[in-house]
Amino acid sequence: MHELRISGLGKGFKGKTAICEIDTVLRSGVYGLLGENGAGKTTLMRMLCGLLEPSRGQILCDGTEISRLGGQYRRLLGYLPQNFGYYPDYTARRFLRYMAALKALPMDYAERRITELLELVHLSEEENKKLKTFSGGMIKRIGIAQALLNDPEILILDEPTSGLDPNERVRFRNIISSLSKQKTIILSTHIVSDIEYIADEIMMMKQGHITAEGTVEEIVASVGKYVWQCLVTAGEAESMRGKYVIANLKNQQENVLLRVISTEKPCAQAVHPEASLEDAYLYYLNMCDE
Ligand SMILES: Nc1ncnc2c1ncn2[C@@H]1O[C@H](COP(=O)(O)OP(=O)(O)OP(=O)(O)O)[C@@H](O)[C@H]1O
Ligand SMILES: [Mg+2]
Question: Which helix (H) or strand (E) holds 153?
Fold first, then answer.
């Protein structure tokens, strides 16, 4: 097991802040980085991979700055970039062979590992097909396979589920769950349900900050008092829509059942339903200023 210690981490691009003052420690387990477009997920992940130099602060792996560890750190690492580049004319196996060569893996180890990984991502039957004939979901799975080639102890997956259909999402969750519990796995998404069941820790990101961090249970518990449910008339619902964050709205005959995220009780009859991670996401996204 490795420890990644992030302290005072910041990154700016031409005067624009993308990441500001992040402090956290990552150990083994699955970390889900949840945030809307532009929150800073990719920037943070690229710094964790050593591909982007921080403007401030540092990232230590087992006490040593990652830039000083160089190849020793890269050998621990597997990375699926958000925009993952591949050669469309390569077959699946040839592409994985090529990636294995880039990672300087011994050839016979690589061949065995490629066979294993093609099985893991359910692409054994397609191994001799060209990548240009693959669907978006199949390309994602090849991307996940290439990130796992060196059996990394730190696995960083940037939006691994985008473009996957519901079946493939389930398959992806199963792949992640099947990996060793000793690994540090960091994955980003803006889809709550993709990480709700597999992440041991959730990190909510907004405008370059981590606004909340903890287990799903802890994060959900932290917003329980802000989640309300009430049955109101259509007219009341309309006026509440302009005033509150509405998590859900369901017509029930002439009335409307509203799920509201609010620090104050939105109407006299409002009660607290059981809160969900989606409620927490809406709270931290819309109402929490760091
Ligand atoms: N190379 C770059 N040059 C300039 N600005 C950048 C660069 N990379 C990222 N940014 C800016 O930094 C901020 C964070 O971007 P980042 O890509 O990390 O967000 P994200 O959370 O990954 O978003 P998404 O969900 O869309 O992938 C954004 O405002 C973005 O415009
Ligand atoms: Mg991104």
Answer: none
